[in-house]
Each structure stands twice: as C-alpha cells, then as structure tokens.
Amino acid sequence: MNGKVFIVGAGPGDPGLITMRGLQCIRAADVIVYDRLVHPSLLKEAPAHAEHVYVGKEADHHTLDQESINELLAMHAMLGRNVVRLKGGDPFVFGRGGEEAVFLAERGICFEVVPGISSAIAVPAFAGIPITQRGVSSSFAVVTGHLCGKELPVDYAAMLRSVGTLVILMGVRSFPTIAGQLLDGAIDKSTPVAFIEQGTHESQRTLVTTLENAIRDSREVQPPAVIVIGHVVSLREQIEWFHEAARASTCR
To answer: Is 159 noted as a catalytic residue in this protein?
Structure first.
C-alpha cells in the first residue's frame, strides 16, 4: 500500500511561522525531503526514525534536479512511507510544488498540499513595509526575477503602473536588468526600493534606496533577498519594528 506525500510550506525562515498543520505533518513523517531555506530547527521536530534528504538548490548548484526530486518523492511513497516535502515559503509561490503535485497525481500517489506563509508578504512585513495601504497602494504583484526561459517576458514597468507595489523574489542577480527596464519604461526614478536580506531571521537587513540608485546599491545585497518597489516602502520609517531597538523596548 502506498504512503502519502505532504507538500508543506515551511514559511519564510523564522521557524515560528510554520502552520500548525505543517508541524503535524513533520512530526508524523517517515521521510523529510527539504530545501535550502528550511530552518534546521524544524527538522528536529521529526520522529527519531525519520530519514532526512537534502535537495537544496542554489543558482549555480542543484543537489538534485527537479525530475529526480519528483522521482524520489514517488519512490518513498510507493514504499508505504509518509513523505514530507518541506519547502521554504509557500509551495505554490515559485516553489515548484505544483509540478510535484502534477507528477504525483499522474501516478495515482496520494498527496496533500499544506500552504505556507509566503516570503512575498511576510518578509516586507518584518521590514515594516505593508505591501498594501489605503491611499498608497490598493494592489500588488509578485514576480520572480529568475525566469527559466519558458515564460513570456515580463513587462515590469507596465506591471508596476497597473499595481501599487511590485514584490520581486529571487531577483538580486537580475535586478540591474529589471531596474533598467523600469527606468526605460518611464517609472519615476525617485520611486522607493527596498532590498530585504535574510527576511524574518535575526540577521535580517534592509537597504532602502530609490530606483535611480538601486542598481548601484544592489551590489551590496546578498541573496536570499526580497525586493519591494513602490511608495509603501516609505512607510517603513514609521512602521519598522523588527530590529534591536524594538526588541529592547517596553513593547515586550
């Protein structure tokens, strides 16, 4: 009898942001197949017998390609095991969880999708940036800066004009190209831009600049980072809360 695959979103980094259902799945797992940005403390929640399989991907190095990961999930499930596919953020937001679900469905393997908190929302919030705000931004778009070549080209300028806030994931390396397109598309060069490194971790760092200076300033940014473009970035001056001064304040 086949086991079951749980495609679980681990959240944006802070282990306290995983959902209760996600934690239940980890605690009942026989095998955990996990990504690079999953917090190590979450693996400690697994049973002692559970096998841990690292399949993390970086820009220049993939431990396993996606096809091999798909096969790995199916193999363990067909051996009757409960498999947790633990992915950073939300598995269906640029996490390739949909591809894994299709692969399992085509083979008749039982699976469940457990949504996670996406870094596209959580990381700006931890930086004191609401991605929507009445009177400032009534909508937002989330886009990846890492295209595989099969998607249609993204018109970043048109997208930013149609929404109030643009959130870019996996876009540090491609940011000079993106910023160039925005400037060429007549986006105001004074538009605020925030780069948020290591979001929701204690090592989180936020760099705020303008579109005019963002290409230069992006050279100081180390991935993983979330990029936010739009006037909501200016609200950080009032809302910023996740820093040493706030932690030491009487708010605690």
So the answer is: no
Q: Quick check: is 8 in a domain?
A: yes
State how far the Cα of 29 lies from the Cα of 108, in Å rounded to an integer. Answer: 20
Catalytic residue (one of 4, 57, 159, 217): 57
Residue 87 known to be catalytic: no
The yes-or-no verdict on residue 148 having pLDDT over 70 is no
pLDDT tens, 62-97?
579 999 999 999 999 999 999 999 999 999 999 999
Residues 175 and 224 in one domain: yes
Do 10 and 109 fall into the same domain?
yes
Pairing assessment for the beta strands 31-34 and 111-114 based on DSSP bridges: unpaired
Among residues 14, 30, 35, 90, the one annotated as catalytic is 35
Candidate list 14, 30, 87, 170, residue with the active-site label:
170
